[in-house]
């Protein structure tokens, strides 16, 4: 499968570079999940977001989403066990992992952190599940997994 990435990132933090495999659109993420058997989706949002906003439905691709918060609700502190929990769920560090959040910020941070932990194929779903705000200041209509018409369910 050939993907055109929206651009891998490399941001300096002091002398240390943080990077990841790149950004993919929700449609590209769905293509990877549908066509690349080992590819996995990790939804890094919080439990309230999963319950109130909905979650990706990967059943037609024969997969299940991994739900693991990057930041713990309600404090929104970075989950200190995140990398260890990913290692339990996905021990093969060459597995393509797509990270999804609301709009692409937390998932990018998670992709960078897992790359730093030794995973080689971490992707950020750039528009997230709900995308950015539309002209009426609502999410879920102007971009993201839901607006792309990809499968999702309300828990």
Distance between the termini: 32 Å
β-sheet strand percentage: 15-25%
- Rg over CA atoms, rounded to whole Å, is 15 Å
Overall 3D geometry?
Answer: globular
Pfam family, one: Rhodanese
Region (Disordered): 1-22
Domain Rhodanese: 35-141
Biased composition (Polar residues): 1-12
Give an account of the 3D structure.
The structure is a single chain. This protein is an alpha/beta fold and 155 residues long. It has a single domain, classed as Rhodanese-like domain (Oxidized Rhodanese, domain 1, 3-Layer(aba) Sandwich). 26% of the residues lie in helices and 21% in strands. It is built from 5 helices and 11 strands. It has helices at 26-35, 47-53, 82-89, 105-116, 144-147, and strands spanning 10-13, 16-19, 22-24, 40-43, 55-56, 66-67, 71-72, 77-78, 97-100, 122-125, 152-153. Strand 9, helix 4 (105-116) and strand 10 (122-125) form a beta-alpha-beta unit. It starts with 9 loop residues before the first strand and ends with a strand. The relative contact order is 0.21.
Write a concise keyword list for the protein shown above.
155 residues, alpha/beta, Oxidized Rhodanese, domain 1, five-stranded parallel sheet, two-stranded antiparallel ribbon, 5 helices, 11 strands, 26% helix
Q: Can I get a quick summary?
A:
The protein is an alpha/beta fold. The protein is built from 5 helices and 11 strands. It has a single domain, classed as Rhodanese-like domain (Oxidized Rhodanese, domain 1, 3-Layer(aba) Sandwich).
């Amino acid at each position: 499968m050939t993907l055109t990435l929206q651009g891998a990132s490399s941001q300096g933090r002091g002398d240390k570079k943080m990077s990841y495999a790149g950004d993919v659109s929700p449609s590209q993420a769905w293509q990877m999940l549908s066509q690349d058997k080992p590819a996995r989706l990790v939804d890094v949002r919080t439990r309230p977001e999963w319950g109130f906003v909905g979650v990706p439905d990967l059943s037609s691709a024969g997969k299940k989403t991994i739900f693991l918060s990057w930041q713990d609700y309600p404090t929104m502190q970075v989950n200190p066990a995140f990398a260890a929990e990913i290692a339990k769920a996905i021990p093969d560090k060459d597995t393509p992992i797509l990270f999804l959040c609301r709009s692409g910020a937390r998932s990018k941070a998670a992709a960078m952190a897992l790359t730093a932990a030794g995973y080689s194929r971490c992707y950020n779903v750039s528009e997230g599940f709900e995308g950015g705000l539309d002209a009426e200041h609502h999410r879920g209509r102007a971009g993201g997994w839901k607006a792309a018409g990809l499968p999702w369910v309300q828990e």
